């Protein structure tokens, strides 16, 4: 617990150095610092909380997996958001071939007063695409 409290005072570069040496407390502190911003960022694109949470968790998992190769001298925030952006792209690519996910996306982005059948799914997606360009 004492080490965790001391991690709060570390700057990003120091945390990344500790992280590269497999320090779980440093990872926890990075997670606590970036989670709210990353979650908000993902929710702008993936409005379904379950999927957005999965993407955020995958981004932090990726950070843990590559922790030894992260350069503390480089801009970590940009790196983390690039990882996350790529995971969002991957999600949409996979979702495009999954009708259950498409239905969830349509339902979450369609006003509640409209009922959407699976036959209307493509039309609604096309309308939403045009509206947001």
Dominant shape: elongated
- Average pLDDT confidence is 81
> Distance between the terminal alpha carbons, to the nearest Å?
49 Å
How many strands appear in the DSSP assignment? Answer: 0
- Give the helix proportion (percent range): over 70%
Structure annotation, total helices: 7
Element order, helices and strands? HHHHHHH
Biggest pleated-sheet summary: none
- Computed structural class: mainly alpha
The unreliable regions are 112-116
| Strand-residue proportion | under 5%
Computed CA radius of gyration, to the nearest angstrom:
19 Å
Describe the structure.
With 133 residues, the chain is mostly helical. Helices cover 72% and strands 0% of the residues. The protein has seven helices and no strands. It has helices spanning 2-7, 12-20, 24-45, 49-65, 76-95, 99-109, 121-131. The radius of gyration is 19 Å and the shape is elongated. The model is unreliable at 112-116 (pLDDT under 50).
């Amino acid at each position: 617990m004492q080490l965790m409290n001391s991690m709060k005072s570390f700057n990003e570069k120091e945390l990344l150095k500790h992280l590269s040496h497999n320090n779980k407390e440093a990872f926890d502190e990075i997670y606590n610092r970036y989670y709210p911003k990353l979650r908000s960022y993902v929710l702008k694109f993936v409005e379904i909380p379950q999927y957005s949470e999965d993407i955020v968790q995958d981004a932090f998992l990726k950070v843990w997996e590559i922790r030894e190769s992260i350069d503390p001298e480089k801009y970590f925030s940009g790196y983390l958001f690039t990882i996350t952006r790529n995971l969002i792209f991957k999600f949409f690519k996979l979702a495009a071939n999954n009708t259950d996910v498409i239905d969830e996306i349509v339902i979450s982005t369609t006003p509640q007063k409209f009922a959407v059948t699976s036959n209307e799914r493509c039309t609604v997606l096309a309308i939403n695409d045009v509206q947001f360009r």
